[in-house]
Amino acid sequence: MRLLVRSWSNYFLLNAGNGKCSVRYASNQQQAKPKEGEEAEKNGYGAKHCMSLVEKYDHENYLSTLLLPKDLRRAAFALRAFNVEISRSVSGHSVEPQIGKLRLKFWYDSIDKCFAEDSQRTYVEDQPVLRELKRTLGARKLNRMYLRRLVTARERSTNQAFQSLRELEEYADQAFSSMLHLLVEVAGVQDVQVDHAASHLGKAQGIATLLRAIPHTGRQQSVCVPLEVLVRHGVSQERIIRGRSDDKGVEDCIFEVASSANTHLKLARQLQDQVPRVVRKIFLPAVATSGYLERLQHANFLLNHKTCVGRDTLLPARLFWKSLLNAY
Predict the structure, then answer these.
(1) Which residues are paired to 14 by β-bridges?
(2) Where are the alpha helices (DSSP H) in 31-177?
């Protein structure tokens, strides 16, 4: 599987400097940071930096992005890297809430800077991710609202519990569906059914991602299981974190939340025949989401089961197969 992923890195990544040939070993070579923005753009440092960020912090979406058509790949990596930077601004137990807010404000304000005219010299040119984002916005017509939603979704405190499944779904829609909507706009597709599919898939991906995070974050933040679900089954957040295999109440809670994600995933896939082929490749993250939910079911909804906490080693092959079938 590592050989397969390395092959993708070698042959599928577009040239960051001139767009005419492939970047060789972009994921394995350490790039020297250019001193000036123009030189950086010439050498393609910004694009390589974005790919490196996504590979390190968002590996599953990195694999999916490699399978996008060449003309969409660079813009997709720019958007994915921007999302990674936003997420990193508030992630980790060592990040003070006030510092996190200041970082989010920086990224929020930077969106308008990226939409500004080229004649207005700003710090955007000195930040590789923002420079790539500005390049993407200059070449494609994207909705500023979705970029802002990526930031505002993270303003929610990690210690703030979700009150209901609806509230959880709304968060997933803001934090995950917004990215899919942006990628659809990059492809130049405008279709109501595609928007519906993107919304459902984003909710499924978001809920599954939050469930996967519970064993890793522990007591550093509130668990994503809504309070209404915990109360219904008489379970505390502490029991969710402990995740004992013989705790039937915890199993019922995780089952209910995972079922919500699976329902949205099914709804997204029911619209597959109405989704253009290029968008089906954008929706390839559904493969990873589906795989996790299946493993979780086989583990009797035990979040800390060994099959649910590690990487899916078969994911690259399954993504490639789905891509060949033009399905998600």
Answers:
(1) 22
(2) 37-43, 45-57, 59-66, 70-90, 97-115, 128-139, 144-153, 165-172
CB 102 within 8 A of CB 87: no
Residue type, 106: F
For residue 310, give both structure tokens.
């590690």
Residue pair 215/299 in contact (Cβ under 8 Å)? The answer is: no
Question: What does the radius of gyration of the chain's CA atoms come to, in whole angstroms?
Answer: 20
Phi/psi for 14 (5° steps) reads -75, 155
pLDDT, tens digit (0-9, with 9 covering 90-100), for 78-87: 999 999 999 9
Is the pLDDT confidence value at 150 over 60? yes
Separation of CA 254 from chain center = 22
Task: Give the per-residue pLDDT at 1.
Answer: 54
pLDDT-derived band at 26 (thresholds 50, 70, 90) equals very low
With vertex at residue 81, the alpha carbon angle to CA 76 and CA 85, rounded to the nearest 5 degrees, is: 150
Residue 175 DSSP one-character state = I
Query: Which residue is associated with the tokens 């969710």?
Result: 240
Q: 261 Cβ partners below 8 Å, 6+ apart?
A: 203, 204, 205, 207, 208, 211, 289, 293
Nearest to 276 by CA among 197, 206, 222, 209: 197
Nearest CA to 265 among 164, 191, 177, 147? 177
* Two tokens, residue 118: 């080229």
Token pair listed for 283: 């929706």
Could you read off the pLDDT of 113-146 as tens digits, one per residue?
999 876 566 788 889 999 999 999 988 899 999 9
- List of E strands, 109-203: none
Task: Return the bridge partners of 22, or none.
Answer: 14
For residue 286, give every residue at least 6 positions away whose Cβ sits within 8 Å of its Cβ, in sequence order, or none. Answer: 201, 204, 205, 265, 268, 269, 328
